[in-house]
Amino acid sequence: MGVLEGHVALVTGGGSGIGAAVAIALARAGAAVSIMDVDLDAARDVAKTIERERDARCFLVAGDVAEAAAVAHAVGATSEALGAPGILVNNAGFMAPRLVPMEELGEAEFDAMLGVHVRGTFLMSSAVLPAMKQRRFGRIVNLSSILGLVGFPYRAAYSTAKSAIVGFTRGLAVETARFGITVNAVAPGYVLTQALRARIDAGLLDHDVFAERTPVGRWARPEEIARLVSFLAEPASAYITGTTIAIDGGFSVRGDPNEFIGVNQ
Fold it and tell me: How far is CA 240 from the centre of its chain?
């Protein structure tokens, strides 16, 4: 019997990358899993993996986390199909499509970044909280990034969004702690997801430079991030709340003032 048996988990952006690994990890721990994603075709592949391994249904729902109506539908449909989510993983997000100086960044690009990452995290959390409070149990895990903890050139919008998630995590954790709800954030470093592999192949990201820059000497695998998220979702993690855990191979704590990482890296 898994440690999450009897619990319902809702994972946003669970159709690929870290989100897919998280959905699979939570299912392996025994949770009934619902995946919300704008790409249901990708999510179906993840669902097939879960159903094949556990012989259990994985619920899928299409929707954009930045849209209030889509969020309400996702939470309502999940509750009807599996039960009210006691675990929420706010993973949905995207990387900046281009790296440009701040003065060349469009207002719409900036708003879109905050819309998905920050507004989406707010809307999803707000939607699941009433049932969590009534049950006096909940686990909310938000996906931040090391770029929410350290500065990089030409990534101000993404860093702003991921930093905001850190602040949101702290505030909500204090507000909900007496209801048995924990709220934490995970800040991954460079992870070999399909999206980042595509950037490497396109010459927009230098795999070897960032592997060398990371003290452990390599990139993370999505499954390594998922293990931490799964632990934070467990009932036994009840005394951990309001924190942001960097899982970056030591990237964010390495001091190297003589090193410069160029714009295309």
Answer: 18
